[in-house]
Design the sequence.
């Protein structure tokens, strides 16, 4: 399967295989050359094709427009292995810091969809496009963190438990920022956020052990702001927590989803493809096969990366 992925016509699949599965140095000459191929790939060109039409003052479609807004374009570029520090992206990067409405606080908990700020912090840091304004994202995320360690935008006053969807991306954003700005405060916040998932074995309720939601045990790509076990396991690998015993059941479930012929499927999708027109919940590109019996390269390479980090992939 690894050999098959290394022959993929998609340079980002080859990059993810070499960097995340085989562990090649991203700063090596060979990987940098591959990243230049990613920069000019048809997929990246499509993702950036409407960048001047979104997020400007007065435009109807905002930065966060699902899934064609520049917020989601940046998130994809960070995942694809796009070259870091590209100054040509600065004009659209600046739109990410658009003002937003005030945050209500109910019973001492900020009700904010912090996945937006967390995701921005993550992809801007990974793309080496973050500047001093990233500090304001960090400050807000720390201030909005709930007592149980996560975040939630539920405006029902009685809501007192963090959301998986609103916690995953802020946790990853803070972890990305902490790589270059380590502090005890950040480490503590990241550890508390990870416990939101680990206490629940990444997909089960604390109260009765039931599966929290069917989508949590269904594989998708991209997930955007959604959650599933592969997203949770990928996050734990990034935090260095993938070998925590509480990840074992989710790892077993991921391995059980491997197709008989090899690889893993994208069992469902959250998008439709609209390369030239704007439409809610549409993306510029197709992210591969969907269906429980069809291998999807994007899901497969991420699954292999998780299993490698967990020590479950034979050398």
Sequence:
């Amino acid at each position: 399967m690894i050999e098959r992925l290394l022959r993929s016509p998609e340079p980002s699949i080859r990059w993810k295989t070499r960097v995340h599965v085989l562990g090649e140095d991203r700063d090596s000459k060979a990987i940098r050359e591959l990243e230049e191929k990613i920069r000019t790939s048809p997929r990246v060109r499509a993702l950036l094709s409407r960048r001047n039409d979104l997020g400007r003052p007065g435009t109807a479609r905002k930065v966060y427009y699902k899934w064609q807004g520049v917020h989601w374009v940046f998130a994809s570029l960070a995942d694809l292995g796009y070259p870091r520090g590209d100054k040509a992206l600065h004009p659209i990067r600046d739109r990410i810091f658009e003002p937003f409405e005030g945050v209500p606080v109910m019973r001492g908990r900020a009700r904010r969809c912090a996945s937006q700020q967390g995701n921005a912090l993550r992809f801007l840091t990974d793309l080496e496009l973050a500047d001093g304004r990233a500090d304001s994202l960090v400050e807000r995320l720390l201030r909005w963190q709930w007592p149980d360690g996560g975040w939630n935008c539920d405006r029902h006053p009685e809501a007192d438990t963090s959301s998986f969807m609103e916690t995953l991306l802020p946790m990853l954003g803070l972890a990305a920022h902490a790589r270059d700005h380590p502090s005890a405060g950040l480490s503590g916040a990241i550890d508390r956020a990870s416990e939101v998932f680990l206490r629940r074995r990444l997909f089960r309720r604390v109260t009765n052990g039931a599966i929290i939601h069917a989508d949590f045990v269904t594989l998708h790509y991209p997930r955007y702001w959604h959650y599933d076990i592969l997203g949770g396991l990928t996050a734990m690998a990034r935090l260095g927590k993938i070998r925590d015993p509480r990840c074992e059941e989710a790892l077993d479930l991921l391995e059980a989803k491997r197709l008989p012929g090899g690889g893993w499927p994208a069992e469902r999708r959250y998008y439709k493809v609209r390369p030239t027109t704007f439409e809610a919940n549409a993306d510029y590109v197709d992210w591969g096969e969907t269906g429980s019996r069809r291998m999807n390269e994007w899901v497969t390479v991420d699954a292999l990366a998780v299993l490698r980090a967990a020590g479950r992939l034979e050398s």
User: Anything to note?
Assistant: The two ends are 13 Å apart (CA to CA). The mean pLDDT is 95.
